[in-house]
Amino acid sequence: MKTLLIKGTTLNGKVVDVLIKGNKFEDIAPNINTIADEEIDARGTAIIPPFYNGHCHAAMTLLRGYADDLPLDVWLNEHIWPAEDKMVPRDIYVGTRLAVLEMIKSGTVFFNDMYGMVEESIKACEEMGIRAQIGISLMDRMGEKDINGRFEFLHSYKRSELVTLSVAPHAPYTVSKDLFRRCVKEAEKANVMIHTHLSETKKEIDDCMAEHGVSPVELLDSLGILTEKTALAHVVHTSDSDADILAKRKCAIVTNPASNMKLCSGAFKFDQHVSRGSKVIIGTDGTSSNNNLSMIEEMKFAALLSKVNDKPTTAPAEMVFDMATKRGAEAFGIDAGEIKVGKLADALLLDLSNERLVPNFNLISNIVYSADSRCIDTVICNGQVLMRGGKVKDEDQIIADAIEISKKFI
Amino acid sequence: MKTLLIKGTTLNGKVVDVLIKGNKFEDIAPNINTIADEEIDARGTAIIPPFYNGHCHAAMTLLRGYADDLPLDVWLNEHIWPAEDKMVPRDIYVGTRLAVLEMIKSGTVFFNDMYGMVEESIKACEEMGIRAQIGISLMDRMGEKDINGRFEFLHSYKRSELVTLSVAPHAPYTVSKDLFRRCVKEAEKANVMIHTHLSETKKEIDDCMAEHGVSPVELLDSLGILTEKTALAHVVHTSDSDADILAKRKCAIVTNPASNMKLCSGAFKFDQHVSRGSKVIIGTDGTSSNNNLSMIEEMKFAALLSKVNDKPTTAPAEMVFDMATKRGAEAFGIDAGEIKVGKLADALLLDLSNERLVPNFNLISNIVYSADSRCIDTVICNGQVLMRGGKVKDEDQIIADAIEISKKFI
Q1: Does B292 touch chain A (CB under 8 A)?
Q2: At what angle do helices B177-190 and B144-156 cross, to 10 degrees?
Q3: I want to staple B55 with a disulfide (CB 3.0 to 4.6 A). Which of A12, A264, A289, B283 is the partner?
Q4: pLDDT of residue A76
Q5: ipTM surpassing 0.90, yes or no?
Q6: Is B261 within 8 Å of chain A by CB?
Q7: Partner-chain residue, chosen from B68, B75, B396, that has the shortest CB–CB distance to A369
Q8: Does the bond joining A82 to the residue before it have cis omega, within 30 degrees of 0?
Q9: What does the pLDDT read at residue B141?
Q10: CB B64 to CB A258 under 8 A?
């Protein structure tokens, strides 16, 4: 197995060498004297776990800045949906590559996705070496034939080391009870997670109460959707009893603060869920409602939005960092998110001489509240170096393709 | 006069050359064929105005990450103030240089400052070539002798091309009516602006009402502080009648959303002031409560915090960008903030191939909602190139000094 030796980096304030063998951390010690296949001089860096993006729509990056600052219905009906209707498989491939490039550059090595034409997204991830859980999106309006085809693909797909699938019913307001019930069965059969949007807006709650007489959380619970293999995006509007259900079912709750702020969905009730021991993690949502995929930025939004609606001690930096790293990986069954022997070798090397990390009284505070992508020198995923000195393989081509293909939307 | 020719950049979507002569834009045209003292190949970039930081405490950057996520009184009394008590002039010099480095790297060419030992801050700004308005801080507890000395310095200082002073009474809860009245006179005499904190927290309003029977805005108005030569930081808690006063007096209102969120001060009422035609601009506050000085990030916080408490059309990207650039410059009497012949030559060159700016459907949206400092290639202030290819003069020394000097606070 290939070995990679990282020399002289800093882990929790101590200078160490880190040896990666294959896709795992093999040894971490002050001085490792071995001849490795590849060696990185990492003096002046800190090694930290990378970020795991709990919810996004990667290929949608092709629509970054396409329409902003509009009422939700105008934004969706007159801009986003008509543009998405024009998308063909190559757009998904090019869009996902652009998104993956952006994620690598900002230190993310995994994303939980929901979009269409998943073969293209899978191809982009495998080529670029990033982890992903790609959701098979489902909505009633797709019709039976399309839905059946999607489930067929799910069962025919052989999960790789990097890419798994999920069953992704869109949301309670676009998916019937019957389709939700089918999702539960098909996900069980395929042994994959379920990924859905839940309780994003006040309107969703009101409409659900009017139609079903229960909250969206209660509705999905009655359908068997809520288990520890479920990732729920947004979850903004939750009563205490909704929060009790989510905690009991051990769902992954993915907060997307920038999107919730930009679309005026509301503020996630951080302490309501954390105080119940729920599995809260962080996601960026798609670039149409953010408009980037930076988990560094998203951590700060998560911490600060939680504070302004509560108290300064809410959502402390260490907790938010944990949600974006270790807990994010855990939520998707990835044995990573910590720099520890035996764990999957996912890591970032931060440039400690970057002014945003100076002084270094508290590295985690600096990462959450001060850093931006320029602080990241190296990105390692599954033992492979995806970025070194800020450079990612093929980036010029990825950018050129994205610029070219975006012209069709103008 | 020295000339600088920027070849092949993009201005508002059109490819142009930009000629700078001395400290002003001399010509902007598709093809300028002149031999300049210095030429920049700017193909693949966009030229935009840089950022003007409406409120900060630059030297405080030395305390980045020193204490976070604590109740306000514990944070100030047990951490920040004791650390500040240890500061000597060299700390202020080193801290300001670190801050200025960070500001240049994130595209800021001016900051409105309030801290102590101003000679050191002035020296740092002059050496590094950045614009600043350095506030002479004043609080009752400084005592008459210190206060007199500060005013003497104010009147003895000869403003330079880059650095002006202001009179900076700290806040209504630390400055007596008499001292505020004296500030009005001394500022008039020196022909400088006044810079103060105002209506930052709910407690400030309640205490002011209890002590003076009026709101902090009303109090300062009764003392003659509020004029078009006044910059007010925070201004979070304002009644409609407070907002009427601020609009009538034409004060610059500086919103600091990240700080207000992190310290749980509250959310700035964006539309309350904009709808009255008030001069709203943007500042980062100090790094102890942010924890960076990035105006790029601050624009996004300003836009998104305003939206989540209102509607998606509040604080649109173009308006927020204007506040951080043109209106920011205007508020401090700097004839810059626009890429226009005759204006002072302050500019940024953005790298249009940076993934955060791709696709480029709307550059301003990309800057406000997606960009980070890595998108900035070149920073020009007053006709001088302060950063090129992401590199700033002496940056290694600035960082080394800051790391070394910060050890005293551990």
Answers
A1: yes
A2: 20
A3: B283
A4: 87
A5: yes
A6: yes
A7: B68
A8: no
A9: 95
A10: no
